[in-house]
Amino acid sequence: MIVSQDIKKNEHFVKKGSARGKIYWLIKGRAVLLTDKDEIVLSGGSVIGVPDLLSEVYLGDYVAAEDCKFYMITFEGLEDLKQIYHSQKGYDAVFLLATVNTVNQILKEYVTVYRRAAMFRQTAQRIRKVLDTVGT
Predict the structure, then answer these.
(1) From CA 2, how far away is CA 92, in angstroms rounded?
(2) Which has more confidence, 52 or 112?
(3) What whole-number distance in Å separates Cα of residue 103 and Cα of residue 60?
(4) Rounded to a whole number, what is the distance in angstroms from the first to the last CA of the chain?
């Protein structure tokens, strides 16, 4: 089932650990995925809940970063989601593109974190070399 839903800024609309059963197609606004270690901003066009599809529960909290408009898609299992996807003639390609875009946004965030960690490691190694030469 697909329902239009408005969510106000700062509203938690998905709680980490709650049973998975909805995904949210973000039409307008921005939302934030909060995990134990990350905060990832998702923009309009994103499909919220994609990282959680293979889990039985949501892996993070989702919060509206500003007033948002969603299409909320309720499903019980992946087969339901597949049927909903195929029943939306004309939107199936758009939905697929939105899903790929969401995964791309999340991967970009992790790549940025990885690069920063690598730079930090290189800097720490340089400092260690300097300190090793000072100590001899």
Answers:
(1) 13
(2) 52
(3) 15
(4) 71
Are 42 and 31 contacting, i.e. CB atoms less than 8 angstroms apart?
A: yes
- 12 backbone dihedrals φ, ψ, rounded to 5°: -80, 115
For the chain, strand residue ranges (E) read 2-7, 12-14, 22-28, 31-34, 39-42, 47-48, 61-64, 68-74
Residue 63 DSSP one-character state: E
Top pLDDT among 122 and 82 is at: 122
Gyration radius of the chain's alpha carbons = 20
- pTM above the 0.90 mark? no
Sign of CA dihedral 110, 115, 121, 127: negative
pLDDT of residue 62 exceeding 70, the answer is yes
Contact in structure between 101 and 48 (CB atoms under 8 Å): no
